[in-house]
Write a structure and sequence with these properties.
Layout: H1 20-30, E1 34-39, E2 42-48, H2 49-56, H3 66-69, H4 83-93, E3 97-102, E4 105-111, H5 112-122
Antiparallel strand pairs: 1-2, 3-4
Length: 123
Amino acid sequence: MKVVELMNKNVVTCHPSEKLNVIINKFELFNIAGMPVADKGKLIGIVCQSDILRGLKAGNMQDLAVRDVMVEDVITAPPTESAVNIAKIMIEKKVNRIPIVDNDKLVGIVTRGDIIKAVAECG
């Protein structure tokens, strides 16, 4: 199975200048735990709940922006990648979500939950 078959194509993103309290509201509103960070349509990072918690040790939520806590070295994959390889990468790199990029454009995201759901549906 290719990752394009199970990825979420409606990707919620944020801007590096957004404050963390806004991001927490987005997490709650969209029922997600992380999202890609984009600037002018280009993927520049990823932020998740654990990044925010680590950031809060150094400052408060009103002062910190996404750029202060995001991970810039983002692991990405093309839509043609196999779901099995994505799962292996997630385990090896200890990540819960991988943005899917095609020709430098963010086209989707795959989470561990997406992989588990696909496995469960296969029987």
